[in-house]
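As a warm-up, study this chain.
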Amino acid sequence: MTKKISHIGIAVKSLDASTPFYRDVLGMAFEGTEEVAEQKVRVAFFAVGESRVELLEPTSDDSPVARFIEKNGEGIHHLAYEVDDIGKTLTVLRDSGVRLIDETPRSGAHGTSIAFLHPKATGGVLTELCQPGDH
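Now compare it with the structure written out below.
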C-alpha cells in the first residue's frame, strides 16, 4: 500500500524564522512555500533524498497546527506516506478497523490528495497518507 515516506511535517511558529536552519545550516534544497487555506497553514518544503521535510506555519489561531503548537510547542507534527490510490487505501484501512480522521481524501499542498489516520490507531503518531497529483 505505502510506497515511501513522503515527508515529515514539523510545526513551527514562523516559516521565516525556521527556513534558514533547514536551507542554510542543514543544506536542504528549498522547494518553496505554499498556503493551504483549507488547512489554515503556510508550508515550506525542503528536499532530503527522495523525501521532504515540510514546515507548517499556522495562518489562524484556530488552525489544528496552532492548537498543536499551543499544546506541545514546535516540533514533529506528522509522518506522511505516499500511496498510489488513496481512496482504495482508506477503504482497506477502514475495513480493517483502523480509526480514520478523514473518511475521504481532501486537498493538500502541491496538488496532492491527503487523508489523516488517528494517532490512537498508529501508536501515537499522527499519520498522513498522500497521493501525488499532477503538478
